[in-house]
Amino acid sequence: MPSIRTKIGPISLENPFMLASGILDENGYTMKRILENGASAVVTKSIGTDERTGYSTPVIVELPYGLINAIGLANPGIDNFGEEIKIALKGNRPVIGSIFGSTPEEFVNLALKMENYGVNAIELNLSCPHVKGFGSEVGSDPDLVEEIIKELKSKINIPVFSKLSPNVTDILSIAKAAERSDALVMINTVRAMSIDIYARKPVLSNKYGGLSGQAIKNIGVRYVYEVKKETGQQIVGVGGIETAEDAVEYIMAGASALQVGTVIHKKGIGVFKELSRELEEFMNHEGYETVSEMTGVALS
Amino acid sequence: MNFSIILSKEVVAKNTVTLKFSFDKRVYAGQFAMVWTPGKGEIPISFSHTGDPKGITIKNYGDMSAPIVALNAGERIFFRGPYGNSFTKPKDGDYLLIGGGSGIASLAPMISKNAHGIISARSMEDLFFLDKFEKSKVIATTDDGSFGIKGNALDALRTLDLEKFQNIYVCGPEKMMKGIYDYIKPKNIAAEFSLERPMKCAIGICDSCSVNGIQICKTGPVFGMDSLRDFTEFGTTRLMLSGKRVNI
Ligand SMILES: Cc1cc2nc3c(=O)[nH]c(=O)nc-3n(C[C@H](O)[C@H](O)[C@H](O)COP(=O)(O)OP(=O)(O)OC[C@H]3O[C@@H](n4cnc5c(N)ncnc54)[C@H](O)[C@@H]3O)c2cc1C
Ligand SMILES: Cc1cc2nc3c(=O)[nH]c(=O)nc-3n(C[C@H](O)[C@H](O)[C@H](O)COP(=O)(O)O)c2cc1C
Ligand code: FES
User: Fold this and answer.
1) B218 to chain A: which residues are within 8 Å by CB?
2) Which of A46, A95, B29, B185 can pair with A125 through a Cys bridge, CB separation 3.0 to 4.6 Å?
3) Which residues 168-227 in chain B show a CB within 8 A of chain A?
4) Which of A33, A77, A83 sits opposite B213 (nearest CB)?
5) pLDDT for A213-225, tens place per residue?
6) Is the ipTM of this structure higher than 0.90?
7) What pTM was estimated for this model as a whole?
């Protein structure tokens, strides 16, 4: 029987399938339930310093091949999130705290609080607008990314993952700037828009949103492949994974672990067990014993 | 996003209207739509009429409901759905519908000659759909005593012999529903509750409506006594739109 266990940084995972940030991970009870239903870890919704209601509705557009969302970083603020983490940790599998901020000090402060709450790792959401250069994101400023990670690595003891946005001109320079992190997570959603032609208006209240799901899978696979090839960093693949075949594509491109989100809309949370079962079947069929054996095979 | 032309508009109570429109999809009692006013917002609203034409009954509570209440016949209504599960169909025999505030809107498709009702509201001018019941089978309550019993739905429920009902269906503010749940729990009577929580996506991915790990928008909004027993969050705490946990 093949083993679908894997490792990311120092963290051991029962299977490669974690819950991605922002999907069903605001309420501790939901995270706990997802851990009990086969996810190997959960990444919390991205948490910032202050409470934010997020954008007003509509915040979601359903498409045949994915979703566009503009939740607007709604979050209770770090000081109100401890109770949810406490509940989630009762799921007895790793909980990864996602944080967003605009300065190294802010990231450090958030990460320290997360560490204090007992999370097993930090994931940096680097797709937040930053104040200095208006209109750009933290994640498109390599110097800032490098500084944030340097600061974090010197101040916290748990692993740090950096989640990269595909909405940048040069992802390699960002990946290199983030090389001190324990792993890179890619990709976040792809900037997109949907217009209702009868209302003659964008559907989302924020007009712009992020595309996720099936539509972005091959974009994600390409980024994972390219960054793995150029940097050799450990990678968590995310974006449009719906089946074990999708998962294997990411793994062969270089991912050591995976995250899934949007597919839950189609398949419910039963998808975690389904993916694990299908992956095991695939490995059996193709004669793989371990996930690491498959990782990056398409690169050579 | 779907849209339909509004066929009729009827004022049913203070600041409350029924809008009717054609929509050729099957809709079951208890299901809801996300109704969108372009540029203004989108909110969950139950189908109060599930036949042909379909209809919603909506009260003006604030910024997002006001522009829907202001729509007129001939204008377009935008919505997505139907979403959620539904009430089980009543068997032969009598059953009881308990609606608090706008909660009676989602129970309205279940009104028949076998239906008994308790409708509670703040004041006389807020009551609606009393006239859809047989006169002898419906009790009204108001907080201010301006009509019917002065008190709430639970006060009315206490006056009834529940044995004669095959099923009880409840929709209203969570505090009221929790009171009713606690009252009927020891009596071993079948009951279904339609829960309301803040909703953003309505498709089970944003977590804003969840109760003990279950997404009200997708698995619910209708739950039986057994499910509610496991919901420690029911009637106690909920998350606000930011995700901050608050007491109910
Ligand atoms: C599944 C579901 C089905 C629903 N069906 C209906 C329906 O059929 N008809 C209908 O009128 N409403 C229904 N609602 C409630 C409706 O979605 C809210 O009233 C609406 O979101 C209010 O938005 P707003 O921006 O107008 O008001 P807000 O600005 O959000 O609220 C204004 C004020 O009204 C209060 N308020 C808001 N909603 C309610 C409420 N339901 N009861 C008491 N006080 C409230 C708020 O606490 C606030 O103080 C339903 C809700 C859910 C989750
Ligand atoms: C509704 C929704 C909310 C999201 N919120 C966040 C978030 O808060 N932080 C973050 O890093 N990514 C967020 N994402 C992005 C996902 O974590 C993931 O990177 C992306 O959706 C691609 O994976 P998928 O196709 O499996 O969903 C969100 C995605 C969706 C659909
Ligand atoms: S409203 Fe988003 S999960 Fe229910």
Assistant:
1) 268
2) A46
3) 200-208, 210-215, 218
4) A33
5) 999 999 999 999 9
6) yes
7) 0.95
Domains in chain B: how many in total?
Answer: 2
B81 CB neighbours in chain A (<8 A) are none
* Cα A216 to averaged position of ligand 2 atoms, centre (Å): 12
Q: Are residues B69 and B48 in the same domain?
A: yes
> Residue A168: which CATH number?
3.20.20.70
Nearest Cα of chain B lies from the Cα of A173 at a distance, in angstroms, of: 32
Half-sphere exposure of B187 (CA within 13 A, CB side): 19
Same domain, B228 and B187: yes
Range of the domain at B170: 95-247
Q: How many CB atoms are closer than 10 A to CB B121?
A: 30
Q: For residue A216, what are the domain limits?
A: 6-294
Of A18, A34, A126, A128, the active-site residue reads A128
Q: Would you state the structure tokens that stand for residue B116, as one six-digit string?
A: 């008994």
Ligand 3 atom closest to residue B209's alpha carbon, by position in its atom list? 4
Q: Are residues B153 and B242 in the same domain?
A: yes
Query: In this structure, are residues A24 and A32 in contact, taking their beta carbons and an 8 Å threshold?
Result: no
Q: Are residues B100 and B212 in the same domain?
A: yes
**pLDDT one-digit tens code per residue, A14-58:** 999 999 999 999 999 999 999 999 999 999 999 999 999 999 999
**Contacts for A162 with CB less than 8 Å, ≥ 6 apart:** A123, A124, A126, A145, A149, A178, A181, A183, A184, A185
Co-location of B132 and B23 in the same domain = no
